[in-house]
Amino acid sequence: MTDKDTAFQNEPSCRSDHDPRSLPVEAAWERIRTVIEPVHGTERVTVRQALGRVLAAPVQSSINVPAQDNAAMDGYALRGADIPAAGTQTLACVGTVLAGASFTRAMQPGECVRIMTGAPIPPGADTVVMQENVQCAGRQITIQAAETPGQNVRPAGEDLLQGDTVLMAGQRVGPAELGMLGSLGLVEVPVYRRVRVAFFSTGDELRIAGSTLEPGQIYDSNRYTLFAALQRLGVEATDMGVVADDPHVMEQAFTDAASFADAIITSGGVSVGEADFVKEIMGRLGEVAFWKIAMRPGRPLAFGTIGQARFFGLPGNPVSVVATWYQIVQPALRRLMGEDPQPPMTFRVRTANALRKRPGRTEFQRGVLSRDGDGELVVTTTGSQGSGILRSVSLANCFIVLPHDGGDVAAGSRVEVQPFEGVMG
Ligand code: AMP
Ligand code: MG
Question: Using CA positions, which residue lies closest to atom 23 of ligand 1?
Fold first, then answer.
């Protein structure tokens, strides 16, 4: 950890939005990327078990995929030299080759072989003519001058060439990667070990599902949000429940969590209220790397270490938990899992509404992306953006990312959005 990382330690908190000690989101991202390294420890798992895991070593192809030149269409394999310069040409059909079979006799001038998609091209042939383009009469076919030599053939190794690095260390295995591992005929692959994450909520006002609420109490929602997010990310998550706003109890919880977890995530207790003990305990047990991030919702957010464990102290407000999870914690955990995540993709669209925004922090407002009457993408705010209004997230399908230095945004102007879902999740 550098001096810069601890520069935010023990700074008095300040609620102004122009707090110069607040760390811009991009800087927080950069710092997390440099401070966090992948966990040590790898294991070999079967290909299917590798889904959602991160490769610990590059995967090289020991074969060509496909192994041989093969037909991209059902039709007739022939020598490109037999395609007539003009008019038509009649060829003798000397056999059939289905996918999975092979035709080993070299083809002579004036010959063709009936071939099915995926079947290997017979020696001597280099072209496939679609079956719809030929006229058949007994064991003869007639082709036209319009055909092109070399067409409709998938060359050996067009997908993966023998010896190529086809997947990199640090790559997360999704459906396409799993398919590639399958196409190489692999049985096992090396992956980073699972990352262990302990999480708990803090707050005397929190009650668990099934209990009756007394005045001033609320049900704990953050542990559900975090459970879901951690589950999806594919870490080994341990739910440590609700921890009271009592420094001794909290200290014990942190110590317990640090004894087995690679990362600890808490919510609540990180601001400057009477019962906000997280920062103080963190200072005692470990190191706090930075304390406030210039983002809304989400400030304050603590990041640090206790022993070997990385610590993320999220604010208590439910929307802040969602925003800090996606913008800061998830990329950090992905790094721990072995990936080198890039900032989420954003793109510019027109906003249907005017948006209120104060300079000096990056705002992650919630919006609904849709198409207007002309088919152009437009984003509409979900309305009230209070950090306690979790509905503003469940109604939304994107973050509207308003940059650090910007102010209010007029209706009709362009804003950056981050869609919640990509094509392959
Ligand atoms: P805090 O950061 O502890 O000051 O909490 C800020 C706000 O978030 C308060 O209104 C808390 O009641 C609320 N809050 C804290 N933790 C949770 C939780 N686990 N579930 C729902 N709301 C919470
Ligand atoms: Mg609290």
Answer: 316
